[in-house]
Amino acid sequence: xxxxxxxxxxxxxxxxxxxxxxxxxxxxxxxxxxxxxxxxxxxxxxxxxxxxxxxxxxxxxxxxxxxxxxxxxxxxxxxxxxxxxxxxxxxxxxxxxxxxxxxxxxxxxxxxxxxxxxxxxxxxxxxxxxxxxxxxxxxxxxxxxxxxxxxxxxxxxxxxxxxxxxxxxxxxxxxxxxxxxxxxxxxxxxxxxxxxxxxxxxxxxxxxxxxxxxxxxxxxxxxxxxxxxxxxxxxxxxxxxxxxxxxxxxxxxxxxxxxxxxxxxxxxxxxxxxxxxxxxxxxxxxxxxxxxxxxxxxxxxxxxxxxxxxxxxxxxxxxxxxxxxxxxxxxxxxxxxxxxxxxxxxxxxxxxxxxxxxxxxxxxxxxxxxxxxxxxxxxxxxxxxxxxxxxxxxxxxxxxxxxxxxxxxxxxxxxxxxxxxxxxxxxxxxxxxxxxxxxxx
Length: 441
Ligand code: 5AD
Ligand code: SF4
Description:
It is built from 13 helices and 19 strands. By secondary structure, the chain is α/β, with parallel strands linked by helices.
């Protein structure tokens, strides 16, 4: 059997796509290998969202060349493949396959062609494609990534995704439910529903709230999460489903991007600071113990110190449980790159604001975590921790909790008291049962 090695960069959607590709290739007679050396096919599934993600891939392609024999096929898939197309083959002469996110169905044939010496780019969009008949080859033992929507119809001015993943399309509810049933049969008990603006999912008659209810109703499913939503798509119906479906976890990752109205407007986020805060309020009122995490960009064109200050104050006002912070990276072809050059923020200002932001979001997260010491949580054991031999588990509100190795196995649920924290992760001491659970939050 020919072997395939695959590396994944970027978001969970890419992880899910990698699982689909490996499933498709397994069906076509390829066996998966974790070692690039000696692999017949090397695939790199890439991200284009920031320049540093792309630079890492380019560097990695150079390294992977060292593992290639004369007949090894090197292919690039994902968002960078879609964005650069044949330019990738010019950049790296050993690349013979460039395949965008909507063209994975033909991967086996494309690889066959490449093994015969062809060099092919496949980057057409296919607005019907959900890969419904693919059997994903899953790597996570306890939770399943389930794409429910592909593409994006928002046009945030910094973002490359609408160009790399095309127009938004929702997958059929029955297919999502069927896949949820299948993963439960395989012993997984948590699903993470994926989409670029996942809560805008709709099939013409039903909305994302109804999808959450349908997935939560699958026998044996214990936890339902989703990522990433857009604030404007949190209708009352979606929030009610989050509140009422017991399987839906008390966590929302709600990208804000900036706390300044002027920046939000220039980013075309389609909400202002007040609307974002109101959205968080509505959710917190409906869902006790909800943890809220976010994405923030600093240094977007035209950002002033006062705008950056507004972001800090928003972070304090919301009290984010965690935040991913990014320096603005101009992406070719996006509206942000056509803004007047005098709006460009000097790199020393970006660096300073970034450092300040990281300091503030970390201190908020720390203090929120210290407040939680002594509380109890149900945790799902996900894996062996990288250090110390403990097991790494996760609470419904998305906190990372280390539990002693002897107390459980991967895939188990157990109750713990949060007895220690580094400020970021917790140590959990197993407790007998659910009784007298202090309410989270
Ligand atoms: N520069 C920096 N960060 C970006 N993101 C998206 N596009 C860019 C860009 N051009 C961030 C946003 C988004 C996250 C996935 O990546 O914060 O929510
Ligand atoms: Fe995911 Fe966006 Fe990166 Fe594509 S560009 S891999 S959709 S984060």
